Amino acid sequence: MGKVADLDRYYDAVNYMDLNASYTFGKKIKTTFYADATNLLNQPLRYYQGTKDRTMQAEYYGVKVNAGVKVNF
């Protein structure tokens, strides 16, 4: 902390929520269907100066989804 708390820069706590799922079937040839979703809450990374009502910067990264199929011989 500096000498003047109103000039200090802080960042808020951030809660992330991710979700993933997969399903595999087959014995000789294994096939897996999968899906991942990250940052479902899309909360900003927010910086503020001195007190929480003085936002300096807010960054939103959006929700990302990845899905696909894997086959193992």
What does this entry look like structurally?
- Keywords: Receptor.
- It comes from Bacteroides reticulotermitis JCM 10512.
- This is TonB-dependent receptor.
- The protein has 73 residues and is mainly β.
- It has one domain.
- Helices cover 0% and strands 52% of the residues.
- The chain is built from no helices and six strands.
- The strands form two sheets. A three-stranded antiparallel β-sheet has the order 1-4-5, with no helix packed on it. The chain has a three-stranded antiparallel β-sheet with strand order 2-3-6, with no helix packed on it.
- Strand 4 and strand 5 form a beta hairpin.
- The chain is rod-shaped.
- The model has no long low-confidence stretch (mean pLDDT 92).
Task: Kindly list the characteristics that best describe this protein.
73 residues, mainly beta, three-stranded antiparallel sheet
